[in-house]
Design a protein that fits this description.
Layout (H helix, E strand, L loop, with lengths): L1 H12 L8 E6 L18 H7 L9 H15 L3 E5 L8 H16 L3 E5 L12 E3 L5 E3 L8 H4 L9 E2 L7 E6 L2 E6 L8 H16 L3 E6 L22 H10 L4 E4 L6 E6 L6 E6 L9 E7 L5 E8 L7 H22 L8 H20 L6 H13 L3 H12 L19 E4 L1
Parallel strand pairs: 1-2, 2-3, 8-9, 9-10, 10-12
Antiparallel strand pairs: 1-13, 4-5, 6-7, 7-8, 11-12, 13-14, 14-15
Length: 424
């Protein structure tokens, strides 16, 4: 009997277990390109080098970074892994096979995995190519949208409530009391009937005393003022309707990707007390190669967000940053030259704007732009040059001051992008 009491005392004195917490890993835009689509001999051929020169994604490192993330999660053992779209380079069947094999390893280790498609997962971009050693190319077979749910059945669709309206949305309860709305936005929109169904599911979950979070590929709303004038699919097309509906259904956290930056923004309807946080995670294959770790408290009332990064084998973070800046400058010069605004700019101003845009994007990707030592000097330079025009100026101010809805006193918001604690 004395031994029994000693054992009970020892148990009571032990630190409280955190097993009741729910630990959630989040990654997005992994854009895996199966190694079989790019043999080493093809990497020096013009077919690949010409294509790759126009990319801001480190596709040659995509399989390596995915494998690193897989090993990290196997060691860390989160309860749940959420993958919010653009699983593959461009929907190639071989790339989906590579991703699925990795996800099966995680599932076998006891980690529950939920996926949702992105705009690159069905070959819609037209770049589903296999590069051959002799410098020629062939179209690689793709996974059709109608096959996605069956193919990824074990990663969200089996045992879930699937959208009866035909989208690839579904609602899952991966851990007791936590409901995930997995929203299909691969067409850059959410259908009216699908949205109504999702909100009904959220209301039912809340009525049952459960916590609800959402995941979707595209950002729920623009984090940067005016950017949708330059990039039409920056966020979902009908974002105001979707934002308002989710908020009214009591959803106050959504996990997104697509833009390859780690940025958290808050928005609300007419009543600021009814708000939603869009936790946008950067691409695993774009500097700084981020993923998120979330911890949901035992009572599901508090959500803690932290951010971690990986580095491709043989490269440093600095290497990745320099690589991205070079690619961004090339892409931005082309974008600027093709925009109607370009007729007001000299060639030197186009060069300067591309340089500033590349630097601003990198600062945005790193997060908490307003704390970056370079932001203030860049803003001063931009204002002094007086060549940017009101639209571009507002956009860059929004980025470097880290303010969504920049200039709108009723909705302007600045939120920590990398570490956050939300009480719900």
């Amino acid at each position: 009997m004395e031994m029994f009491f000693l054992m009970m005392a020892a148990l009571l004195l032990m630190p409280q277990s955190t097993a009741a917490q729910t630990r959630i890993a989040v990654a997005t835009d992994i854009h895996v390109m199966a190694p079989s689509l790019l043999p080493d001999e093809a990497k020096s051929q013009s077919a690949w080098t010409n294509y790759y020169a126009g990319q801001r994604k480190m596709l040659e490192q995509s399989a390596d970074l995915f494998n690193q993330l897989k090993e990290t999660l196997l060691n860390d053992k989160p309860d749940l892994f959420l993958l919010t779209g653009d699983l593959t380079k461009d929907g190639e069947r071989a790339s989906h096979d590579y991703v699925k094999t990795g996800l099966e390893t995680l599932r076998a280790a006891g980690i529950k995995v939920l996926v949702i498609p992105g705009n690159h997962d069905f070959g819609a971009e037209g770049n589903h190519t296999q590069f051959l050693a002799d410098g020629t190319t062939v179209d690689a077979p793709i996974l059709a949208a109608e096959d996605f749910a069956k193919y990824y059945a074990d990663f969200g669709y089996t045992g879930s409530t699937v959208d009866p309206n035909g989208s690839l949305s579904y609602v899952a309860e991966p851990t007791k009391g936590l409901v995930v709305l997995a929203i299909d936005s691969h067409t850059a929109a959410v259908g009216e009937n699908t949205l109504a169904w999702l909100c009904d599911q959220a209301n039912e979950a809340h009525a049952a005393g459960k916590q609800v979070i959402a995941m979707m590929h595209h950002p729920l709303f623009p984090h940067i003022q005016g950017l949708n004038q330059f990039i039409s699919t920056y966020s979902i097309n009908n974002y105001k309707t979707v934002r308002n509906s989710l908020i009214e259904a009591g959803v106050n956290v959504i996990l997104t990707g697509h833009f390859h930056t780690s940025d958290i923004a808050k928005d609300w309807n007419d009543d600021p007390a009814k708000s939603i946080y869009d936790i946008n995670t950067g691409s695993l294959i774009s500097y700084p190669c981020d993923y998120r770790m979330l911890t949901l408290s035992k009572d599901h009332r508090q959500l803690s967000v932290s951010t971690a990064s990986l580095t491709p084998t043989g490269m440093t973070a600095s290497d990745c940053k320099v690589w991205l800046k070079g690619r961004l400058k090339t892409l931005m010069k082309a974008k600027i030259s093709s925009h109607q605004y370009s007729r007001f700019l000299t060639d030197s101003n186009k060069e300067l704007l591309a340089e500033m845009g590349a630097n601003a994007f990198i600062i945005h990707a790193e997060g908490n732009e307003h704390k970056n030592d370079n932001s203030a000097s860049m803003l001063k330079q931009m204002d002094d040059e007086d060549v940017w025009g009101p639209l571009v100026g507002k956009t860059i101010h929004s980025i470097l001051e880290d303010k969504s809805n920049y200039g709108d006193a009723t909705h302007e918001n600045q939120t920590d992008d990398r570490t956050l604690i939300l009480t719900q």
